[in-house]
Automatic annotation (TrEMBL):
Homotetramer. Its main location: cytoplasm. NADP(+) binds at residue 32. Belongs to the DapB family. It comes from Pseudotamlana haliotis. It comes from the Bacteria. (S)-2,3,4,5-tetrahydrodipicolinate binds at residues 132, 141-142. NCBIfam families: dapB (TIGR00036). The keyword Nuclease does not apply. This is 4-hydroxy-tetrahydrodipicolinate reductase. The gene is dapB. GO terms for molecular function: 4-hydroxy-tetrahydrodipicolinate reductase; NAD binding; NADP binding; oxidoreductase activity, acting on CH or CH2 groups, NAD or NADP as acceptor. Its EC number is 1.17.1.8.
Length: 234
C-alpha cells in the first residue's frame, strides 16, 4: 500500500516505522512548509498534523479520491463539513480521537460504566487527561469522546467544560507534563468512595498501529467510518 503521511512529527514518524514493518511504502511526507503537494500518487493518506490544517488536508484527499485516516484532534468544528464532502465525493474517511486498541476498549468500558451510574445520583463524575507539554489542544480529543459518550448514556449530564463542572456539566481537567504520551481517567466520587477507570499509554506505538490498521482496512471502501467499524467492537 502506498501511504501519504500528512504531518511528519512524533506520530507521523512512528506511523512510518510501523507501516514499513508491515510491508507498506511511504510515498509522501508533508510538514508545514509543503502546502502544494500532489496526493494522487497515494493509495491512502494518514493525517496526524495540527488542528488548523487538518480539515484542508482531509479535503484535499477527498477531492482527489484518496481515502483518508485522520487522527489530528482539535479541528472538529469542521467535522460535519468533512462528512458532507466525503458523501458528495463518494470517498472514504475515518476520524478517531484515539486509534489505540486499548483506548477503544476503554471507550466501551466508559459507556458501560456510564450507563450503570446514570441512576446513582450520589456520584459526581470528573475527568482528567495528562499529555506532554507540546500538545496544542485541550482538552484532548480522547477526553472529549469520553465525555460525549457519558452524556449519551446519562441524561443528567448536558455538556462538558475545561476545568470546571456543575451538576449537569462534566469537568475535564487537562494537565501538561513533559513526555507523557497520554493518560485518561474517569472518576465517580461519592461521600463514601471513589470509582476510577484509567487508560495509560506507555508510548505512541498503540496509536500508530491502530492508524495503520485503519488505513489497511479502508482500502476499497466508501463511506464515513469509525474505529468501531475497523475493530468490529461496540
Ligand atoms: N487519534 C490519535 O490516536 C492520536 C492523535 N494525536 C493527534 O495527532 C496530532 C499530531 O500529533 P503529534 O505527531 O504528536 O504532533 P507533532 O507536533 O509532533 O506533529 C505534527 C506535525 O504536523 C506538522 N504540520 C504543520 N503544518 C502542517 C501542514 N500544513 N500539513 C501537514 N503537516 C503539518 C508539524 O510541523 P511543524 O512542527 O514544523 O509545525 C508537525 O511536524 C495532534 O493533533 C494530536 O493530538 C496524537 C496521538 C494519537
Ligand atoms: O496529542 C497527543 O499526543 C494525543 N492526542 C490524542 C488526543 O487528543 O486525545 C490522543 C492521545 O491521547 C495522544
Amino acid at each position: 500500500m502506498k501511504i501519504a503521511l500528512l504531518g511528519y512529527g512524533k506520530m507521523g514518524k512512528t506511523i512510518e516505522q510501523i507501516a514499513i514493518n508491515r510491508g507498506h511504502e511511504i510515498v509522501l511526507t508533508i510538514d508545514k512548509n509543503d502546502s502544494d503537494y500532489d496526493i494522487s500518487q497515494a493509495d491512502v493518506a494518514i493525517d496526524f498534523s495540527i488542528p488548523t490544517v487538518a480539515f484542508n488536508n482531509i479535503s484535499k484527499c477527498l477531492n482527489n479520491n484518496v481515502p483518508v485516516i485522520s487522527g489530528t484532534t482539535g479541528w472538529l468544528d469542521h467535522y460535519d463539513e468533512a462528512v458532507a464532502l466525503c458523501k458528495e465525493k463518494n470517498g472514504a474517511f475515518i476520524y478517531a480521537s484515539n486509534y489505540s486498541l486499548g483506548v477503544n476498549i476503554f471507550f466501551e468500558l466508559n459507556k458501560t460504566l456510564a450507563k450503570m451510574m446514570s441512576t446513582l445520583k450520589q456520584y459526581n463524575i470528573s475527568m482528567e487527561e495528562i499529555h506532554h507539554t507540546q500538545k496544542l489542544d485541550a482538552p484532548s480529543g480522547t477526553a472529549i469522546s469520553l465525555a460525549e459518550d457519558v452524556i449519551a448514556q446519562n441524561a443528567n449530564y448536558k455538556g462538558w467544560k475545561l476545568d470546571e463542572g456543575d451538576e449537569t456539566t462534566i469537568p475535564i481537567v487537562a494537565k501538561r507534563i513533559e513526555d507523557v504520551p497520554g493518560t485518561h481517567t474517569v472518576a465517580y466520587d461519592s461521600e463514601v468512595d471513589t470509582i476510577n477507570i484509567e487508560h495509560i499509554a506507555h508510548n505512541r506505538q498503540g496509536f500508530a498501529l491502530g492508524a495503520v490498521v485503519a488505513a489497511e482496512w479502508i482500502i476499497g471502501k466508501a463511506g464515513v467510518f469509525t474505529m468501531n467499524d475497523v475493530l468490529n467492537i461496540g
